[in-house]
Amino acid sequence: MTIKELYRVNPLRFILATISYVLIPLSAIGQSYLLMYEVTALSNRNLKLWLWLTAGELLILLVTNLTQSSSNYLATKQIQNYNHQVRANTIKHYYFDGQDHTVAAMQNRLTTDLKNTNENYLLNFFRSVQMACYILFAVIVLLLIHWSLLLVTLVLVGISIYLPQLIAKPIQAAFSKISDSNKKYLDVAEKWLNGLNTLQRYMAGGHLFKVMDEATQEVQESKVQQTRINQRLAVMNGLVSSLLMLALFAFTAVLIANKLVVFGTITTVGNLQFYMATGLQYLGNYRGQIKSTKPLNAKIAEDSNAIEQQKENELGTAVAFSGKNLSVAFPNGEKIAFPDFSVKAGEKILLTGDSGTGKSTLFKLILGELKPATGTITYFDKDNNKINPNLAKIGYIAQTPRLFPVTIADNVTMFDSKLNQKVDQVLSEVDLTDDVKKFKNGDQQKVDLDHLNVSGGQRQKIVLARAKIHDSDIILIDEGTSAIDQKATIEILKKLMQSKATIVFIAHNFSEEMHQMFNREIHLG
């Protein structure tokens, strides 16, 4: 995420927001400048001049109130529109990159990380402009009063700019730790809360509370550490600024005593002292926080970069495939090696093996969701030529059917209106027609993911219908009928075996009748 990209979202609004943030210090310091002459007019008993100056000050005060409200609105609107673009690009990146991202990691990137960047980088840019203008306009006013006051100001600015560099790295580490700990918390929540019913059944709430408390504690400690470092930075900036501003105030008193400036300067310098102290302190803080977001911004940019996709006509349609010297390695050191295999076009293969032998993992390799540690998978078209396949055309039915909160028909067609006419046919082929008729709205019944108005077997049938209606030349089925009764499973298998598709089916406890439906078996062990 960059300021240049933020500008491109809406250049006019960005410029107006920036101008609004500039007008706030301009109005405030202009008001202080007039105050100097107001006090001087009163000391000289010039009531008419005092009234004109007071009217001008009231006008400036009105402008200040208007710009304060508009600046926050314009900046927030610009940032939220930018966030919308970043989220859209990030979702596209996750969709096209072919990697297996956890839900917790994606949620963390789209919510917490963007929120941190908004607050500590994008908004701080506008705030930094505002604080820099407090310093700049104060410098101009001090120069108008007496050139010697500028020298002290330059010393203050130099120290303020240098100071954040002393603890920039600890702040960066604190922000990165917050992102990592929050990602870990979401991951723990996803893994444990998904099994809430099981934990309740076995009254294992105590362990759940312990695990969640440990994850929460890490998030809290990370945020406390960030606050501690930010406070340290604020104290350092504030202490140095206060000491130097005290010197500025004393120096101004000397100038008044020597009649080098007007009497009202004493009140103006007091206000300028406040504005400069505020500007110097917060500018230092904002610069430190902006620098701390650099690693996080790089990660967000990486996850929102567009991925160049090969055109569909450049990819072939696979009907067969083979694997040679395949193996996968996991972060915990575990490794699974697979035997060489070859699956011909139209074959119906039963894939078997004990738990942990890598049956589902092999499917992920075939689908391109995992990268092998060794070996390759080769794909072939209908003419038995090696091709670069369009993996999106491979049908896949996972152990846990993935449905969406739309109608049954849309879950089958996956929003391809050209397939609407085939819905009734495929529902019949997977033995779902009678079940669908029981719904009030038939195949237009919306699937309720929160209260699950479809059974486990119905969910599997919907996903089977999805694979069939898209005429996939290769279909990978990972225990896709485990929730369907044996009689219905046999009927579904018979229809699947009549198709021209190449089918690889993972199953346990198949009867001999079901086993005989397949051309052959590949056993992992």
UniProtKB/TrEMBL annotation:
Residue ranges constituting the ABC transporter domain according to the UniProt record: 321-522
GO cellular component: plasma membrane
CDD domains: ABCC_MRP_Like
Residues covered by the ABC transmembrane type-1 domain: 41-292
Keywords: ATP-binding, Membrane, Nucleotide-binding, Transmembrane, Transmembrane helix
Domain of life the protein comes from: Bacteria
Keyword Nucleotide-binding: yes
Bilayer topology: Multi-pass membrane protein
Residues annotated as transmembrane: 12-37, 49-67, 134-163, 233-256, 262-284
GO molecular function: ABC-type transporter activity; ATP binding; ATP hydrolysis activity; ATPase-coupled lipid transmembrane transporter activity
Matching InterPro entries: AAA+_ATPase, ABC1_TM_dom, ABC1_TM_sf, ABC_transporter-like_ATP-bd, P-loop_NTPase, Sigma_54_int_dom_ATP-bd_1, Type_1_exporter
Coarse class of the protein's main subcellular location: membrane
Pfam families per the UniProt record, alphabetical: ABC_membrane, ABC_tran
Subcellular location field: Cell membrane
Protein name, per record: ABC transporter, ATPase and permease components
